[in-house]
Amino acid sequence: MAAKKRETVFISEADQYVFAQGTHYDIYKKLGAHPSEENGKEGIFFGVWAPNADRVFVIGTFNDWNESSHELHRIGTGGIFTGFFENIAVGELYKYLIITPDGRKLYKADPYANSAEMRPGTASKIADLSRIKWTDGTWMKNRETKDMNKEPMAVYECHIGSWMKHPTGDDGFYTYRQFADRMVEYLSEMRYTHVELMGIAEYPFDGSWGYQVTGYYAPTSRYGSPEDFAYMVNLFHKKGIGVILDWVPAHFPKDAHGLAEFDGTCLYEHPDTRRGEHPDWGTKIFNYGKTEVKNFLIANALFWIKEFHIDGLRVDAVASMLYLDYGRKANEWLPNKYGGHENLEAIEFFKHLNSVIKGGFPGVMTIAEESTAWPKITASVEDGGLGFSFKWNMGWMHDFCEYMKLDPYFRKNNHHALTFAMSYNSSENYILPLSHDEVVHLKCSMVEKMSGYQVDKYANLRVGYTFMFGHSGKKLLFMGQDFAQEREWSEARELDWFLLGESLNRGMHDYVRDLLDIYRRYKCMYEVDNDWGGFEWINADDADRSTYSFMRKTPEGGKKLLFVLNMTPILREGYTVGVPSSGKAKLILNSDDKQYGGNGTVVDKVITAKKSRCDNRDYMLTFNLAPFTALVFEL
């Protein structure tokens, strides 16, 4: 079979014009390094945006890093430099040598590179994405017709490098392929619907977890090549698992080879430090008012969606982008043109981003990590919103964690902490996150947040997880939380998988698996998450006993689930709970079962509702409610 003929890559006047307008959504196919053919000769086409450079050269392994042999030439007036060179192969390392008008030499990685040198090296690496083969057509077709608001969504947040260490791999890292082969088994067994991957775009420092990016268009080389990354996504899709990436358009690091002062000037960042730098994070902030910078970011989001079939982007640190005074003292920020603290350019950026994704890629989600009460995060752009698909409910997360940390004696005075989130639940499309941020920096692991003896901690957490899965909103758990990892997470070591040999941890693992199974089997658990048609309090006011009861339901009827939670170490004998009608209640989950590490308090598998007024309902169930126990009944 004859070798596939390479296409000729070039940047036309039209490309330059649309890029300058900020709407060249395929610009990554032009800028960067791409296999090309010109006049029958094969080679690599290079393109870089560096408008304030005097001269630009490509240096690399192909020319022994010679600083004068491969010069790029400025085209047009928009500041793009290009060049085509023969006898350069895919896999070669390279950088741009940028000469500033005052004679400085800057050695920069390619902002649009599709691969990078393994750290601590900082060079870019020539890649050929046309080699990638996809076999996930069924998944991609089905995704277009899905409304994720009405689908189950249970996300497993994961850091590849510390999920599990490989005994022979570099730095103990699994490759994308090895990780995928093991992870699909775990996710399928546990019944998660999606995996969310931290730190995929290339970054220099392991301790940043991938939140300080230098290579926005390159899957990190820590775990392999772009082809390896695509293999992983392809396999997840074939096994029915969606893939969400953390995406960081809020800031970037000051590393010399990165975007900072790329052509000797503040090209990607805002030139005024009051808008262009985070004082607390020591990073640069993108200039959202510059069209080419907005184009860089929006095209990057589309790059992951189009070239790697990503199903969703969780956008990091949205609040830091929306507020000009975020993390700043009074004299450290500039107000907008109306004198306010809203970042009008970032607002417009989000509306543009979400409109393009929603319009071109139905079924692809954008998820805002936004920690304030900014209105209409998930409302449509047409309705004055930002257009995100979902928002992390940070308020719910904070209230939940603070409540669960309390000694049970004090819970009665903080009863509202678990009921408050439903009062604003319909304002956004929410995801309930228990993410990596809750188990680092001396915050303790989830199980170690709980009070009491060890057995109480585990019982508490089982009840807490039951509340989370029963509550309105999609779900997210960080890796290790589903088997009660006891140590805080560290990117430098793998999860404590040996704990699965302990009865309490194995019990937690099995309990979360069964919660996930119930979540996916019953439509009432996910079909209506942002409306009172899907949730009903039975008793939200039993503060003295610290018990809660509520139902999940669907507007058209069908099976309902009743949740009853005891947040104290006290046995509630003859506990009664109101139900809306006569009939039988079938117990489908008891967190106190011995198989989960509980005491084995017996509750009848089927309880018949009696005609009696209770909780403002005409019927009631009666049973013994064990200490630190959650019960789930099918009605």
Write up what this structure looks like.
- The chain is an alpha/beta fold and 635 residues long.
- Among the domains are: 13-131, Immunoglobulin-like; 532-634, Immunoglobulin-like.
- The protein is built from 14 helices and 29 strands.
- Strands 1, 2, 3, 4, 5, 6, 7 and 8 form an 8-stranded antiparallel beta sheet that branches. Strands 9-10-13-16-17-18-19-20 form an 8-stranded parallel β-barrel. The chain has a 6-stranded antiparallel beta sheet with strand order 21-22-23-29-25-26.
- Strand 1 and strand 2 form a beta hairpin.
- Helix 7 (291-308) runs parallel beside helix 9 (344-360) and helix 13 (454-470) runs parallel beside helix 14 (503-521).
- It is elongated, with a radius of gyration of 27 Å.
- The termini are far apart.
The radius of gyration over CA amounts to: 27 Å
Number of helices: 14
Shape: elongated
Nearest-integer average pLDDT: 96
Which CATH architecture of the domain at 13-131 would you pick? Answer: Sandwich
CATH superfamily of the domain at 13-131: Immunoglobulins
Q: Could you tell me how far the N terminus lies from the C terminus, measured between alpha carbons in angstroms? A: 63 Å
Find the count of extended strands (DSSP E, 2+ residues).
29
* Low-confidence parts: none
The helicity comes to 10-25%
The secondary structure category is alpha/beta
Major β-sheet profile: 8 strands, antiparallel
Q: How is the CATH topology of the domain at 13-131 named? A: Immunoglobulin-like
Kindly estimate the percentage of residues that lie in beta strands according to DSSP.
Answer: 15-25%
CATH classification, class level of the domain at 13-131: Mainly Beta
